[in-house]
Amino acid sequence: MKKILALLFFISILSCSTNPESHLEHVNGYWEIDQVIFTDGSKKSYKYNETIDYININDSLKGFRKKLKPGFNSKYITSDDAEGITVKIENDSLNFYYKTPFANWKETILMAEENNMKVLNDRETVYIYRRYKPLELDLE
């Protein structure tokens, strides 16, 4: 009985796999790290982030990621620095290739939904992001 249940579970997981292109519609916007899972299995959770990521990918599969410091009422502090991104779909994976004057690296988007994203970097560390919700203050 356990073998049958395990087989059914495995088949259901395979049938739920999505086209990596479908993740693209969700990656643009503001993201903050929720949790990091390291290669040894240890985890680090974040309740508050001093910086967030802004990702913008255009129709030609090029774009950038910028680090922002959130302020009040949807205001952000940032520098002119941005990491260039080239998006490629390879071996059923959505890959982001980053380029700066100092380094080049690759990240694989494991999952991207409206409010959650999971990213694997080239050191096999998994970053779990949540959609950033700006702090709105009623100053009246």
Give a brief description.
The protein is mostly beta strands and 140 residues long.
* CATH topology call: Lipocalin
**Tell me, what's the shape?**
globular
Would you identify the regions where 5 or more consecutive residues have pLDDT less than 50? 5-16
Average pLDDT figure: 85
Helix content: 10-25%
The number of helical elements comes to 2
**What is the radius of gyration computed over CA atoms, rounded to a whole number of angstroms?**
18 Å
Say how many strands there are. 10
Q: From the coordinates shown, what is the CATH architecture?
A: Beta Barrel
Descriptive account of the structure:
Mean pLDDT is 85; it is low at 5-16. 13% of the residues lie in helices and 46% in strands. It has 140 residues and is mainly beta. The protein starts with a helix and ends in a 9-residue tail after the last strand. It has one domain (20-131): Lipocalin (Beta Barrel), CATH 2.40.128.280. It is globular. It has an eight-stranded antiparallel barrel.
